[in-house]
Amino acid sequence: MEETDSIGASRETVLVLLGGEKNIESKVEFAPVTEPRWRARAARRAPGVTSHTVLIVAGTRPECIKLAPVIHAIAARADIETIVVNSGQHVDAVRRMFDGFGIDCDVTVSSDGFAPNLVTAVRRMTQRLHDVIIATHPAMVLVQGDTLTAYAGARAAHAAGVPLIHVEAGLRAPTVADPFPEEWFRRRIARCSDLHFAPCASAARNLRDEGIDPRTIHLVGNTGIDSLRALLATLPPPSKPPESMPHVLVTLHRRENWDGNADVVCDALLALAAAHPALRFVLPVHPNPRIATRLRRRLGPHPRFDLVAPMEYRNFVAMAATAQLLISDSGGIQEEAPHLGVPLLVPRTCTERPEGVATGFVRLVAIDRDAIVAAATAMLAAPRRAGLPFDHHAPFGAGDAAQRIVGVLAALVAEAVAA
Predict the structure, then answer these.
(1) 324, pLDDT greater than 70
(2) Which conformational region is residue 376 in: left (phi greater than 0), alpha (psi within -120 to 50 degrees), or beta?
(3) Active-site choice (168, 194, 329, 336)
(4) Which of 124, 137, 235, 307 has fewest C-beta within 10 Å?
């Protein structure tokens, strides 16, 4: 469930200012480290902070969902501690999400609000996270996914000389420019990571193909599946309330679907509503005004479109589990839909999660009104299938990724203690 900010700059401008297009494929600037570096950190620790402290950075709702299992798994151990940092990207959303998981942030990075462009946002956040790392002397820094926060955290850790752990490493789209900037962030984070926790087989293969030391790559599954499995165990079986209309759940927020593409999707949704008068459409609206304004203007007046505030995780999963169809450009929903047994239509040109498409629950569709309507109509008419079980045959793991990650970290800590 990636999120983006309302910060704008052309792809070409950002590529030049953040490193240059020629450097994107280079493995020189951030050569992957082949041996753990955290043995040397004990002498730098601050009073009251152990030499085996992991500084975990989160800045968006999806990061919270996918990092909460890791934080809880570490909390159950005595040999590793955490410092949980709210990066300031989406301050209130992170606070609310972590509250729902029973997690308190140890550090909240101040934010001066709107950044004029992506380059400025990266620079400001990198500096602030670097200051936190220098002040707390962690043994390692852990980032998740492909957000602005993950990239800034990776840059800050690299600048501070602290080993970097990347959770959900190795997802790749065909080109660096689509989706932007997520794909660019992923590839750059890989250059300065010491441990790569891959969520699926294709991600591990991508990392090996890029020349990452196989000893640093661990195929563990996706921690988002950990959260989903734990939540579903607490929910009653999905049921339709009496007298309620069947619904389609829609989310739209990614940068490539801003502006004109958002209008195309809105046109398709209105056509779909006209063709299916028994359906209502529920849209949790992302706070980014670049997308929110268009959705409210185009869809808000329609009586069968419910535009609602972003949902708490539990409510969102419950709504998704009872939907007739999901339409979303989110990455996280591609991982969740096969387990929910709900068909998902993804209005994007490509996906970095081909395993989701291979399940048959997830279908890519071009940003084209007629194509979206035709694909959605076919998926609504198709027989429903049972969701995938949580086992090690599932494409994104069995829901034990956090335990696997912390097992690797604990083994490295034990090795460092013995050295």
Answers:
(1) yes
(2) alpha
(3) 168
(4) 235
CA quadruple 177, 178, 180, 182: dihedral sign: negative
Please tell me the pTM assigned to this model. 0.86
> Is 146 annotated in the active site?
yes
pLDDT band at 13 (very low <50, low <70, confident <90, very high): very low
Q: Is residue 95 annotated as a catalytic residue, yes or no?
A: no
The single-letter DSSP state of residue 169 is -
Catalytic residue among 2, 63, 182, 336, which? 182
Asked if 66 and 103 touch (Cβ cutoff 8 Å), the reply is: no
253 is catalytic: yes
Together in a domain, 197 and 290: no
Cα gap 142→165, rounded to integer Å:
5
Q: Does residue 388 lie in a domain region?
A: no
Is residue 169 a contact partner of residue 189, using CB atoms and an 8 Å limit?
yes
On whether residue 6 sits in a domain, the answer given is: no
What does DSSP say about strands 107-108 and 140-144: parallel, antiparallel, or unpaired? unpaired
3-state secondary structure of 170: coil
Write out pLDDT tens, residues 162-204: 999 999 999 999 888 778 889 999 999 999 999 999 999 999 9
Q: Which position among 3, 5, 63, 146 bears the catalytic label?
A: 146
Amino acid identity, position 249:
L
Q: Write the DSSP symbol of residue 39.
A: G
Rounded Cα distance, 391 and 291, in Å: 37
- Give the type of residue at 275: A
Task: For helices 401-418 and 61-75, give the axis angle rounded to 10 degrees.
Answer: 50
Q: How far apart are CA 413 and CA 210, in angstroms?
A: 27
Residue 286 annotated among the catalytic residues of the structure: yes
**Domains in the chain: how many in total?**
2
CA distance 162 to 156: 9
One domain, residues 99 and 194: yes
Quick check: is 15 in a domain?
Answer: yes
Catalytic residue among 130, 186, 247, 255: 255
Cβ atoms 67, 58 nearer than 8 A:
yes
Please give the order of strands across the beta sheet that includes 362-365. Answer: 305-308, 280-284, 247-251, 325-328, 344-347, 362-365
